[in-house]
Design goal:
With about 70 residues, this protein is α+β, with helices and mostly antiparallel strands. The protein is about 35% helix and about 15% strand. The longest helix is centred in the first third of the chain and has 12 residues.
């Protein structure tokens, strides 16, 4: 195909950023794709924004997909 071999992988780790970095270094990753969900005010106060964390701490290009609001 035009895109070659695409792989979808769910990465679970206690530390989100460390889990992503481990997977990237072990598997020669070229780009990271992530879904960004909108969160309410209270949820933003008490949880980390993984997309923002990747934006500021990753050297790889990111493809950010908007999440579906329910």
């Amino acid at each position: 195909s035009y895109y070659g071999k695409l792989i979808f992988k769910v990465i679970e780790d206690v530390d989100f950023l460390q889990g992503i970095n481990n997977y990237v270094s072990e598997n020669k990753i070229d780009i990271i794709a992530i879904v960004n969900h909108r969160r309410g005010f209270l949820k933003r106060l008490f949880t980390k924004d993984h997309t923002r964390e990747l934006l500021f701490h990753s050297d790889l290009p990111l493809k950010i997909f908007p999440g579906v609001n329910k």
